[in-house]
């Protein structure tokens, strides 16, 4: 399986996940105060939204790469 086919499959899967979930959440730790040996840390949850057009574009580009004619060397 060529690298183009693998990239196409990855794009299709990533696009489908983007459409299904609409984004992802991650936790960001920030140090608020350091008072000697005592440290106060705050963890914020951040959400990154992925636009619908980006998921659709990834699926379309992946499909074109997957179905498109391959190069023969």
Give the topology, please.
Layout: H1 3-21, E1 23-35, E2 38-49, H2 52-67
Antiparallel strand pairs: 1-2
Structure commentary:
The chain has one domain. The protein starts with a helix and ends in a 6-residue tail after the last helix. The chain is an alpha+beta fold and 73 residues long. The model has no long low-confidence stretch (mean pLDDT 87). The protein contains 2 helices and 2 strands; from the N terminus they run αββα. Helix 1 (3-21) runs antiparallel to helix 2.
List descriptors.
single chain, 73 residues, alpha+beta, two-stranded antiparallel sheet
Quick take:
The chain is an alpha+beta fold and 73 residues long. It is built from 2 helices and 2 strands.
> What is the end-to-end distance?
15 Å
The strand line-up of the biggest sheet is 1-2
Oligomer: single chain
Q: What's the domain count?
A: 1
Low-confidence stretches: none
- Spell the H/E element sequence: HEEH
The proportion of residues forming helix, as a percent range, comes to 40-55%
Main sheet: strands, sense, barrel? 2 strands, antiparallel
Shape: elongated
Number of strands: 2
Q: What structural class do helix, strand and pairing data support?
A: alpha+beta
Q: What value does the average pLDDT take?
A: 87
How many helical stretches?
2
Query: What percentage of the residues does DSSP assign to strands (E)?
Result: 25-35%
Rg over alpha carbons: 20 Å
């Amino acid at each position: 399986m060529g690298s183009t086919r693998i990239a196409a499959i990855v794009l299709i899967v990533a696009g489908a996940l983007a459409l299904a979930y609409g984004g992802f959440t991650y936790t960001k730790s920030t140090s608020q105060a350091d008072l000697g040996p005592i440290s106060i840390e705050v963890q914020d949850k951040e959400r990154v939204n992925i636009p619908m057009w980006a998921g659709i574009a990834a699926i379309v580009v992946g499909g074109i790469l997957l179905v498109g004619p391959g190069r023969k060397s």
